[in-house]
UniProtKB/TrEMBL annotation:
<feature type="binding site">
    <location>
        <position position="216"/>
    </location>
    <ligand>
        <name>pyruvate</name>
    </ligand>
</feature>
<keyword id="KW-0220">Diaminopimelate biosynthesis</keyword>
<feature type="binding site">
    <location>
        <position position="60"/>
    </location>
    <ligand>
        <name>pyruvate</name>
    </ligand>
</feature>
<dbReference type="InterPro" id="IPR005263">
    <property type="entry name" value="DapA"/>
</dbReference>
<dbReference type="Pfam" id="PF00701">
    <property type="entry name" value="DHDPS"/>
</dbReference>
<keyword id="KW-0457">Lysine biosynthesis</keyword>
<keyword id="KW-0963">Cytoplasm</keyword>
<dbReference type="InterPro" id="IPR002220">
    <property type="entry name" value="DapA-like"/>
</dbReference>
<keyword id="KW-0028">Amino-acid biosynthesis</keyword>
<dbReference type="InterPro" id="IPR013785">
    <property type="entry name" value="Aldolase_TIM"/>
</dbReference>
<comment type="pathway">
    <text>Amino-acid biosynthesis; L-lysine biosynthesis via DAP pathway; (S)-tetrahydrodipicolinate from L-aspartate: step 3/4.</text>
</comment>
<keyword id="KW-0704">Schiff base</keyword>
<feature type="site" description="Part of a proton relay during catalysis">
    <location>
        <position position="59"/>
    </location>
</feature>
<comment type="subunit">
    <text>Homotetramer; dimer of dimers.</text>
</comment>
<dbReference type="InterPro" id="IPR020625">
    <property type="entry name" value="Schiff_base-form_aldolases_AS"/>
</dbReference>
<keyword id="KW-0456">Lyase</keyword>
<feature type="site" description="Part of a proton relay during catalysis">
    <location>
        <position position="121"/>
    </location>
</feature>
Length: 314
């Protein structure tokens, strides 16, 4: 590793240790289905301005529906913006050699971390997952967040796997998105060396008491400042009234497969030019009377109230 990369990695390590909200950024497309880099730039800058970290090419970013060249173009474009925000890159799929090549390419870019997903479709057991993650951790030159998302991968990451990996120098964190509080607590008990992030927006008030490190969020695509404030309040123990409001927001954004509602609402708010998705996802899954505008108004009103309270305290 050259001197510039060493300096960059030290800076990123400090930044990720203070980043409590990561936005799983959507990938905007133009009407023809090509990447809309203008919208991508605006949304990446918006996240940076809000103080949020940026996750590229996750499931919310439709990463697996993109070609390798498109994935590369997105990461190189966003890292080229020289934002204040730390950037995490998703590593997902099925072919291990391709994922190792992807990590080797991204190692040379000014990123902060990787998100390492369980192989899709194969449903490997504890031995296979340990071998998979070990190989990725060894290839990485940046801190890594493991990603437990059984609703998409078909299996949980076994606790035994995380226990074996937690002392690897690149094993920094785990994104826990099973939606099961007992699973989160089991990871917390048996894998104390790994920082735990929620992958479920609405669970933050409940997980804060279990020392969750932060949130990897879908909702912050639409509400970057409000979600940042929500996470800050949850982590500081100010839970009152948070769950009902944000559960309504999450229900609206996940009423059909994500990120369909998120992109539809972002297009309505002119945050992206179109709600276009990559097949097999389509915005036409969403009913016309979807409640997104109502939820958006509630979140914006809540953020205004929070801002007024802060001004009143000052």
């Amino acid at each position: 590793m050259n001197q510039n990369n060493q300096l960059s990695q030290k800076t990123h390590s400090y930044t990720i240790s203070t980043t409590t909200l990561w936005t799983a950024l959507v990938t905007p497309f133009d009407p023809q289905g090509a990447i809309d880099f203008s919208s991508l730039k605006r949304n990446a800058q918006r996240q940076s301005d809000a103080g949020n970290g940026i996750l590229l090419l996750g499931s919310t970013g439709e990463g697996l529906a993109l070609t390798a060249k498109e994935q590369q173009a997105i990461v190189e474009f966003v890292t080229g913006l020289a934002l204040e925000a730390p950037i995490m890159v998703a590593v997902g799929g099925y072919n291990l050699s391709e994922q190792l090549e992807w990590i080797a390419h991204c190692n040379s870019l000014p990123i902060a971390a990787y998100l390492l997903g369980t192989p899709i479709y194969a449903k490997p057991g504890a031995v296979g997952q340990t071998q998979w993650f070990s190989a990725l951790l060894e290839r990485s030159e940046h801190p890594c967040m493991l990603y437990n998302v059984p609703s998409r991968s078909g299996v949980n990451i076994p606790i035994t796997t995380v226990k074996q990996l937690q002392n690897h120098p690149n094993c920094w964190a785990l994104k826990e998105a099973s939606g099961d509080l007992s699973t989160f607590l089991a990871f917390k008990q048996h894998c104390p060396e790994v920082q735990l992030f929620s992958g479920e927006d609405a669970m933050m008030p409940y997980l804060a008491g279990a020392n969750v490190a932060g949130l990897v969020s879908v909702a912050s695509n639409v509400w970057p400042e409000a979600t940042h404030q929500y996470v800050s309040l949850a982590l500081s123990g100010q839970h009152q009234g948070l769950f009902p409001l944000w559960q309504n927001a999450v229900d609206a954004l996940f009423q059909v497969s994500s990120p369909i509602p998120t992109k539809v609402l972002m297009a309505q708010k002119s945050m992206i030019t179109t709600p276009t998705l990559r097949a097999p996802l389509t915005e036409h899954e969403l009913a016309a009377n979807n409640g997104l505008v109502d939820v958006d108004q509630l979140i914006n009103q809540w953020l205004d109230n929070q801002s007024q309270q802060i001004i009143g305290v000052k």
